[in-house]
Design goal:
Chain lengths: ~200, ~270
Amino acid sequence: MSQLTYYFSLSLSAILIENFIFVKFLGCCPFFGVSKNVETATGMGIAVTFVMTVASAVCSIVNDYMLGETYAYMQTVVFILIIASLVQFIEMFLKKSMPALYESLGIYLPLITTNCAVLGVANLNVSSGLDFIGSVIYGFAAGLGFTLAIVLFASIRERLEYADYPKCFTGFPIALVAASLLSIAFMGFQGLSIF
Amino acid sequence: MMQTLVFPVLILGGLGLFFGLLLALGSKIFHVDQDPRLDKIVKALPGANCGGCGFSGCAACANAILKGEAPANACPVGGAKSAVAIAEIMGIEAGNTARMVAHVNCRGGINAVQKFKYDGIEDCFAASKVSGGHMGCPYGCLGLGTCVKACPYDAIHIVNGVAVVDAKKCKACGKCVAACPRQIISIVRETEDVFVSCSSHQRGADLRKVCNIGCIGCMLCQKNCPVGAITVTDNLASIDYDKCIHCGKCVTVCPRKLIVKASDSTVEVQA
C-alpha cells in the first residue's frame, strides 16, 4: 500500500468508519449541547477540528521526542496540559478576531478542554503508533468527522422543531432517538473497512 | 533516580512553563479592550447567576445594561442597592426600585380538604398529574415543596401544608413562580400592597366544601372598598393597584382573612 493510499484510508476511517461520535461515542457533550442550529454547529465543528489537528501535532511531537517509551505513563497528564493550553489560546484568539463566533460558542468553547474526543484522538494516535504526519492527518480527519456528525445532527434537529411527534419526546428525548438512528446508519460504513 | 524522579518533573514543569508563557504572550497580543464600566457593573450585581433577570447570568445582564437593552434595576435580586450602584456607574436614573418578593396566593394547606392520600413522588408536578392532584381544591397549593427545592435562597417553606415565602430572605428571582405547577406564586411589591391570597375560581358553595379559608366571592371587599379598586370576577376578588390607596379596609372586612400583606406570611388554622 502506497503512502497516499494509507493516508487516504486513515482519514476515511476517521471520518466515516470510526466516526468519533457515532461509532466511538466520544465527545457527546458538545454534540448534544451545540447542535441546536447549523450555524453554531458548524462553528463548533471547525473549532474542534482546529483544536484536534493542532493538539494531534503537538502531542505527537511531545510524545515522540520528550516522553517516548520511558515516560509513557505521563501521556495523559501531558496531553491534558497541552489541550487545555491550546483551547485557552484559541479562546483568546477567537475573542479578538471572531467575536460573533466566540459569543455563539459560549460556554462550549472552554468545554472543548474537557472534550474526551480531543484527548481521545491524542491517545489513539499514540496507541496506534502513528507518526507525525499520520497523527496530523488522523486528527484533522477525526475533526472533520466530528464536524460532519454535528452538522448533520443539527440540520436534523432544526427540522425536528417542526416535526410532529408525541409531546413527551420534546427536547432531549427526541434528540437522543435521532442520534441513535444516525449512529446505526453510520455503523453501515463498517463495510468500507480497508485495513 | 534522575530518570524516575527528576526528568518527569522537568518535562511537566517545562511544558507548563512553556504553555504559561505562550498564554501570557497570547493575552498581550489578543488583548480585547473592554468597557471599564462592564467590570464595575458585574461587581455591583449579586453574582448568584440565578437568571432571575431573564439573562443567562450576571455577566450577560451586565452586558445588556451596558448596551442599554436592560434598565439599571434589571436585577430583581440585587434590588435597590445594586440598581442605585449601577445607575451611578451608567449615569442614569435607577428607576422603580421597590423591593419585590414572591407571594403564594393560597392559604389552604391544613385548612383544605384532601380528596385522597397522595403517597407518590414528593413533587407537586407529579402529584398534580394524579387525577388532578390530591387536594380537594383544583387551584390551591399542593404542599409538596417543588418551590422549596427550586428556591436558591432558602426563602420558601411548607408551613402547615402550604408554601409560605420568607419575605426577609426572598430575592424575587422568580424560580418558584416557574416551578409551581398550579401557578399560584406571583412576584409582588413587598410592603405597600395587599394581596388576595387565594386562586380559586370555584363557586362559594363548592369552595366551602374543600377549603375553610379560600375566597368565596362574598363581595364584601368590593362593597367596602372606598375607591372601587377591588372587583370580584369568577368568584375571586382581584385588586387594581393603580386605584388602591392602601387603606387596609379590605384586610379587616374579609370574613375569610385571606387579603393580606405580602410581608405578613403566616398560615393559621381557621375554624
